[in-house]
Amino acid sequence: MRESTALLTDKYELTMLQASLRDGTAHRRCAFEVFGRRLPNERRYGVVAGTARVIDALARFRFTEEQLSTLDFLDGATLDYLRDYRFGGDVDGYREGELYFPASPILTVRGTFAECVILETLILSILNADSAVASAAARMVTAADGRPIIEMGSRRTQEQAAVTAARAAYLAGFDATSNLEAAKAYGIPASGTAAHSWTLLHTGADGTPDEAAAFRAQVEALGVDTTLLVDTYDITAGVATAIEVAGPELGAVRIDSGDLGVLARQVRRQLDGLGAHNTRIVVSSDLDEFAIAALRAEPVDAYGVGTTVVTGSGAPTAGLVYKLVEVDGVPVAKRSRDKRSHGGAKAAVRACRRSGTAVEEVAYPLGAEPPEVGTLEATPLTVPMIRGGEPVAGLPDLEASREHLAAALVTLPWEGLALSRDEPVLSVRFDRV
Amino acid sequence: MRESTALLTDKYELTMLQASLRDGTAHRRCAFEVFGRRLPNERRYGVVAGTARVIDALARFRFTEEQLSTLDFLDGATLDYLRDYRFGGDVDGYREGELYFPASPILTVRGTFAECVILETLILSILNADSAVASAAARMVTAADGRPIIEMGSRRTQEQAAVTAARAAYLAGFDATSNLEAAKAYGIPASGTAAHSWTLLHTGADGTPDEAAAFRAQVEALGVDTTLLVDTYDITAGVATAIEVAGPELGAVRIDSGDLGVLARQVRRQLDGLGAHNTRIVVSSDLDEFAIAALRAEPVDAYGVGTTVVTGSGAPTAGLVYKLVEVDGVPVAKRSRDKRSHGGAKAAVRACRRSGTAVEEVAYPLGAEPPEVGTLEATPLTVPMIRGGEPVAGLPDLEASREHLAAALVTLPWEGLALSRDEPVLSVRFDRV
């Protein structure tokens, strides 16, 4: 078995398990639902991401003897239950790469209370992290308007989170990642240029910089199609040196500081003047979706995005919750003052005009007939993912989910792709729930 | 060997390595420095965290044949270099739990260019993530003013990041975590209460809630010292039921919604009226350092903090960078328009009054005599961590680092502990560098 995910769990889930085994409620048939109460930062839509990782993580949710030995706060019956634990229930939900809105029933987990309750933290950790990154990344892809974006934020987030953030960014339409583990684990194209340290390394014993030596060595090692970082000292001198060393067939130059719009124009003119018409300009340096959009009219060929994408551009978590919605067929919902939820296990459709434009989502009881949507067309959003503990056949891979998202974004009303703050572009109506 | 960390690396580090092996610069003696250009969100201080994890991760920075087989963009000589790679250099820096300010030389890595350059992403990922959490968490601990805080944010961050976030929060003075893997891996006390799902599970076949049954089962399974979650339906009824079921020796009640200050007062009165004078009140629900501070006058006994601490309370990354500062003994620094740095490998001291209050930091050449600080006392901040690739003996453990931070915070001028935005409370002066 690959690494166990079983301890990526909050203690209270196991103490609730113990209490439920004692009072017999452990075996009640339950449905838990993952949904978001709102979209962070008044965004117009969210992107579901991490679903395939959840399915993989559930298969590895097994307690080893070594893990069990650390759970000394549990009684013998509970430890026995965990020793044999295999999730044997069903999971249905929005496929990875689907859009979601407040109250969209993103994922529904059904089984006994015992088998479902202990999955709360793991499922939410994955979906919250991945959806946060994908939701931010999708806005950047829209802002880039067809120009490629490279994810290079590994250094600004936890070392393992970097790997899954690269995956989520790629799902959302990024073209490549700097992260080698993500390239290996998920088959994402890896990309990279050079660091300022590379140029600084080529400093003489008397402290004299030798940018030309750095560029020459890079071109010799990596070929003329490489990307030279030209802003370590003076950008104009850096560009001149780059073309002098590499010739006008140089692949690209990267600018990583300063007013990127002004510099891109200046560098483009300089490159063209040197006959390097095909040399691309890559820009980086604290880019977010707004900065990317602001560069739309500039001669920029590709963006490198780091910090903002891996931290969700101001919304580092999607804020999704995992709530019990049904017990033995009876809908349940808590009634705390400021946190309400709809009871009952749900499926959903998205109602679209014949033109393809989405109008609303409609949630209805899981397993019931889909709702009537008049002259609109109802696209099913809820698909089976796990049956009796086993993943269903034919679940989409990362490429398929990436294409699904790209297609889904096209169905949004135009204002849905605006970067400004506003209400969600679609709302969820409840039918029979 | 435990799991390899070698691919938690950006591609460009390996292509720079290849270029340096070809042009012979790979073996130049270099010093790279980790520092922050500024503190996020105009905070007054930062907390160094993750250092022990860096040291552990470097020991596991070994390329397996399987990993090497995925690096098809490298030539044979580079692959051979990686196959034999062991970091053999030196690391010095601020100990874990130390305070830092803009330009503090937090970590200095010395060795050949080749052996140092490929560690950039891994070192920064760890320090940026852990320091972001610890820096936010330390402010929450100050705001809590001695009342315990439980970290329970696992579900709001990536599943592995949750484990290390729990560690960073504990380092900063949190008392416990909900995360079981963190408890196992780092020996942090685990804690937990119950979820709303537990109460909702106890719903009759006709949909009638039975909060009393939920509370009774929890007390029977976990003892009367447990914490009952009283806000699933009506809080006043919930508190009454809790004491009715558990008696006035109930450990605690938790409130997870609503105006926590108002509710805490109301619940305290109610508990006292029921004779439950020792029953504690635990509050949670989107608490950050400001909300914690605002509850200081209320009868709250403990805080549960989730989202904000694991996401750095608005600053999910510390923004630390890893820059080449010295080549073959010559200081180097880039001169891009908006990103300047000081060349040369550095150590630092903190100058304090005899009363213990810190006045400034002074950075000076690593290995040189410490600077004169007049009538002040100079506390060394830079300590050796790795020598010739091996960790030095006697490095502090997590508990020691936690105590170190608590003691360091006491040395700050009073305004350093204010939560409001302002300049860093100490600045770094450069002496001979």
Describe this structure in words.
2 copies of one chain form a homodimer. Chain A is α/β, with parallel strands linked by helices. The first copy, chain A, has 2 domains: 11-133 and 315-430, Alpha-Beta Barrel (nicotinate phosphoribosyltransferase); 141-310, Alpha-Beta Barrel (TIM Barrel), CATH 3.20.20. Chain A is 35% helix and 20% strand. Chain A is built from 15 helices and 21 strands. Chain A has helices at 11-23, 51-59, 65-69, 76-83, 113-117, 120-144, 159-171, 180-186, 196-201, 211-222, 235-246, 260-273, 289-294, 307-310, 398-410, and strands at residues 29-36, 46-47, 90-94, 99-100, 107-112, 149-151, 176-177, 227-229, 252-255, 280-283, 302-305, 320-327, 330-331, 335-336, 339-340, 346-352, 358-365, 377-380, 382-387, 390-391, 428-430. A 7-stranded antiparallel beta sheet of chain A has the order 13-12-1-5-3-19-20. A 6-stranded parallel beta sheet of chain A has the order 7-6-11-10-9-8. Chain A starts with 10 loop residues before the first helix and ends with a strand. The model of chain A has no long low-confidence stretch (mean pLDDT 96). Chains A and B meet through helix 1, helix 6, helix 7, helix 8 and helix 9 of A and helix 1, helix 6, helix 7, helix 8 and helix 9 of B. Chains A, B: Residues 150-339 form the Nicotinate/nicotinamide phosphoribosyltransferase domain. Chains A, B: Residues 7-128 form the Nicotinate phosphoribosyltransferase N-terminal domain.
